[in-house]
């Protein structure tokens, strides 16, 4: 089971995450988030991470120049895009950048079934699904009916996100059978501050249910 720990804001938290050997960590480059980091800080944190852990940059409606500069400066391996579909001319630019990217899909709070497309958006390597919110972009720690994503999971490399924690991750994995999971607030003691014990228990649950 592929695991991404998102919202890393410090070298200390990166170390806590790395001790559990995740597949990826996420840096949020969005000023409106309590987990926002500057590209320079993400670069410094990345330098001390073990090889093999992907550095994912989470972007929210920025201009493309910001994405390119941040990806280069921070040493990113992958991009996660929150916002409307890429403008047509961006596809050529992301191809030139040479980084895989994660397409984010939102499930409305009142949804009864999956109603979105069953294929990744053009060029995306993975699809991350979370519940839509009128608050900040991202899952906002909101649990939702994860089984709504089960159909999509049969068609794409799906990353399940939004409100996941040690108590609900087992059921979510059993119901959806995703390619991977993404967690942020579910392993925190406060916004932007990771908790070692919550992280450890989350990994234990993911690996226990992800191998069955």
TrEMBL record:
Question: Sorted alphabetically, which CDD domains does this protein's record hold?
Answer: PRAI
Entry keywords, A to Z:
Amino-acid biosynthesis, Aromatic amino acid biosynthesis, Isomerase, Tryptophan biosynthesis
User: Can you state which reaction this protein catalyses?
Assistant: N-(5-phospho-beta-D-ribosyl)anthranilate = 1-(2-carboxyphenylamino)-1-deoxy-D-ribulose 5-phosphate
Boundaries of each N-(5'phosphoribosyl) anthranilate isomerase (PRAI) domain copy? Answer: 3-204
Q: What is this protein called?
A: N-(5'-phosphoribosyl)anthranilate isomerase
Taxonomic lineage is: Bacteria, Pseudomonadati, Nitrospirota, Nitrospiria, Nitrospirales
Cited Pfam families: PRAI
- Give the metabolic or biological pathway: Amino-acid biosynthesis; L-tryptophan biosynthesis; L-tryptophan from chorismate: step 3/5
- The EC number(s) attached to this protein equal 5.3.1.24
Gene from which the chain derives: trpF
HAMAP family in the cross-refs: PRAI
GO MF annotation list: phosphoribosylanthranilate isomerase activity
Q: Example GO biological process term? A: L-tryptophan biosynthetic process
Q: What class of enzyme is it?
A: isomerase
So what family is this one in? Belongs to the TrpF family.
């Amino acid at each position: 089971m592929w695991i991404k720990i998102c919202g890393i804001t410090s070298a200390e938290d990166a170390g806590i995450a790395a001790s559990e050997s995740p597949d990826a960590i996420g840096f949020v480059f969005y000023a409106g988030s309590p987990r926002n980091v500057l590209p320079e800080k993400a670069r410094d944190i990345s330098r001390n991470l073990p090889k093999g852990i992907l550095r994912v940059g989470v972007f929210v409606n920025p201009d493309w120049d910001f994405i390119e500069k941040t990806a280069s400066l921070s040493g990113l391996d992958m991009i996660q895009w929150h916002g409307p579909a890429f403008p047509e001319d961006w596809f050529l630019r992301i191809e030139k950048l040479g980084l895989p990217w994660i397409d984010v899909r939102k499930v409305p709070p009142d949804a009864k079934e999956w109603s979105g497309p069953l294929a990744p958006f053009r060029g995306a390597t993975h699809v991350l699904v979370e519940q839509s919110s009128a608050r900040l972009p991202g899952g906002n720690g909101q649990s939702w009916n994860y089984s709504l994503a089960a159909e999509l999971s049969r068609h794409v490399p799906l990353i399940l996100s939004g409100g996941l924690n040690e108590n609900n991750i087992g059921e979510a994995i059993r119901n959806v059978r995703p390619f991977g999971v993404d967690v942020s607030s579910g392993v925190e003691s406060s916004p932007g501050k990771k908790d070692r014990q919550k992280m450890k228990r989350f990994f234990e649950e993911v690996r226990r249910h992800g191998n069955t």
